[in-house]
Structures are given as structure tokens and as C-alpha cells.
Amino acid sequence: MFCLCVFLQLAALERQIFDFLGFQWAPILGNFLQIIVVILGLFGTIQFRPRYIVVYTVWTALWVTWNVFIICFYLEVGGLSKETDLMTFNISMHRSWWREHGPGCIRRVVRPSSPGILEDYSYVSVTGCIIDFQYLEVIHSAIQILLSLIGFVYACYVISIFMEEEDSCRSK
């Protein structure tokens, strides 16, 4: 369980860093909750507290659902559009950090030449990306889903063992 928790934490922390760089507030909040609940699940396993592990399993189901939503969002399934400000809670116009900084991407900043436009506003042109940003986001979510499903199965197994031990202690 410890190794799985380490992988879950590393994946969530990596994703948290890149979501912070892109000012993606909705995923930042979700990643933060994921980090906290994984710690809670690990604590529940070490301290033999099945209720904490149940919280972890319920959260894992929600986490998988959230990651499926992210996949649908970036692949524009069901009327969703990656061009909306949904991931930033409509607070800013920021997008995925990977949009401009993906592997192989060449980023060109074009400053506006018109006198009425703000000086800090610029158009960013991105070309030459090896893999488009939406696919990188989908890969991140797919990895989260895979690790979470493994964690879910393992947590259910641990809960069943704890319940069997509790039942055997009561029957004696």
C-alpha cells in the first residue's frame, strides 16, 4: 500500500505543479484534495482505521469521475470545449501550461502594435509540438485513473481484511 500511495502522491504532485503553472484552479483544488485523502488512506491503513479507508475509497470513485470529466473536456466530448474558462472557474483566461510549453513546442510572442491595446497583452503562437497539449492532459488523467483504480481495489481488500479481523475479535 505504501508504494501505491507514493505513486499516487507523486502523480498528484506532478499534476499539481503544472496546474499551478497554468492557473488551472479547478484541477488545483481537486489535486489538493487527492493529496490529503491519499495521506488519510495511508494513515487509515497503518493505524487500522477502516473508516478512513472507506473515505479514501469514496473519494477515489469521485476522483476517477473527475478525471473522466477532464478527459472528456480536453477531447471535447459531449459539447464540452477546451477553449472555455471552466478549469479556471471563469476567473482568468489562462489555459493548460502544456498548451505553450509542451514537448517540442516553439513559442512565439507577438506584441500588439496598435496604440489602444494594453502593453502586457500579447498573442502567443505555438508550433512544432510533438504532442498536442490536450493529449498530454488526457495522458495525465488516464494515469490518475489507472493508479486510482488499483488503489480502489486494494483499499476494498484492506477494508475486507480489517472487517474480518474485527469480526473474529468479536466472536471470541
Topology:
Elements (H helix, E strand, L loop, with lengths): L1 H20 L3 H22 L3 H25 L23 H4 L4 E5 L12 E5 L5 H39 L1
Antiparallel strand pairs: 1-2
Helix pairs in contact: 1-2, 1-5, 2-3, 3-5
Question: What's the overall average pLDDT, rounded?
Answer: 85
- Largest beta sheet, briefly? 2 strands, antiparallel
Number of E strands = 2
Order of helix and strand elements from N to C terminus: HHHHEEH
Give unreliable regions as ranges: none
**Spatial sequence of strands, sheet with the most strands:** 1-2
Beta strand % = 5-15%
Radius of gyration, whole Å: 21 Å
Q: What is the straight-line distance between the termini?
A: 29 Å
Q: Please give the share of residues in helix.
A: 55-70%
Shape by Cα distribution: elongated
Structural class: mainly alpha
InterPro entries: Na/K-Atpase_Interacting (IPR008516)
Membrane topology: Multi-pass membrane protein
Organism: Serinus canaria
Main location: membrane
Please explain how this structure is put together:
- InterPro entries: Na/K-Atpase_Interacting.
- Keywords: Cell membrane, Membrane, Transmembrane, Transmembrane helix.
- Helix 1 runs antiparallel to helix 2 (25-46) and helix 2 runs antiparallel to helix 3 (50-74).
- It is built from five helices and two strands, in the order H-H-H-H-E-E-H.
- It has helices spanning 2-21, 25-46, 50-74, 98-101, 133-171; strands at residues 106-110, 123-127.
- Helix content is 64%, strand content 6%.
- The protein has a two-stranded antiparallel sheet with strand order 1-2.
- The mean pLDDT is 85.
- The protein is mainly alpha-helical and 172 residues long.
- The radius of gyration is 21 Å and the shape is elongated.
